[in-house]
Design brief:
CATH superfamily of the largest domain: dinb family like domain
Helix content: 55-70%
Radius of gyration: 22 Å
CATH architecture of the largest domain: Up-down Bundle
Largest sheet: 2 strands, antiparallel
Number of helices: 8
Distance between the termini: 35 Å
Number of strands: 2
CATH topology of the largest domain: Four Helix Bundle (Hemerythrin (Met), subunit A)
Structural class: mainly alpha
Number of domains: 2
Strand content: 5-15%
Strand order of the largest sheet: 1-2
CATH class of the largest domain: Mainly Alpha
Order of helices and strands: HHHHHHHEEH
């Protein structure tokens, strides 16, 4: 019984046997306090990361929440690339997948233009004649610069519009069908970009761990 109680509360197994009343207190009082404490530690750790700020749990508005989560995920992608050599950044470390950290950076450079459509300016054309998911060592510095330019343009385009503003954009309906132009709100673009980054940051977690064993959020 004591063993089951300790598993339920995720506390270390005690040396003396704990009376059932004490186990009940652990479940109802200690465990919630432990999780609140662990949550504060995680948030504090995230806030100390250079360029990465944990989104508020009480955002003042929908837009504040969307912007905060997107910036968090942008910073997470770059964090996964910190401290690696160009050779490591272009390494596809999880075969048979061809994905590499630099390939993800290049891909998301090309996804940020969902926001660019709101400024009406021409495409940036950063990877002309290149396969997006096949980065090269000699282009690593250029590719990071392109990513930063793409993000800065995305921020500026979004800042000039409201969430309900709509632009006609082509969307993939199915792999075997042509793209279909649909009215698309800035709100949808924020939601889509958060989903896009969250998905690929999961890939980045595994790629980085296979390269040098680094783990973390």
């Amino acid at each position: 019984m004591v063993y089951r109680a300790c598993l339920a509360t995720r506390l270390p197994l005690p040396c003396p046997l704990i009376p059932s009343a004490a186990a009940c207190i652990a479940r109802t009082a200690i465990r919630p306090r432990y999780y609140r404490f662990a949550g504060r530690l995680t948030a504090a750790y995230s806030r100390r990361m250079p360029g990465r700020i944990a989104p508020s749990t009480q955002p003042g508005s929908e837009r504040e929440s969307l912007e905060a989560w997107l910036e968090f995920h942008r910073a997470t992608l770059l964090m996964k690339c910190q401290g690696l050599t160009p050779e490591q950044l272009v390494t596809a470390s999880c075969p048979p997948s061809r994905l590499s950290l630099m390939g993800l950076v290049r891909h998301l450079t090309g996804v940020e233009p969902w926001f660019h459509d709101f400024d009406g300016e021409p495409d940036m054309g950063m990877f002309e004649g290149e396969e997006m998911f096949e980065p090269s060592i000699e282009h690593v510095e250029r590719d990071f610069a392109n990513y930063r330019r793409s993000v800065e343009r995305a921020r500026a385009a979004a800042a000039a519009h409201e969430l309900d503003d709509v632009v006609a954009m082509p969307h993939w309906v199915a792999d075997d069908q042509p793209r279909e132009v649909r009215p698309t709100s800035l709100r949808w673009v924020y939601q889509h970009m958060i989903e896009e980054y969250a998905r690929h940051n999961g890939h980045a977690d595994m790629i980085r761990e296979r390269i040098d064993g680094t783990v973390g959020d």
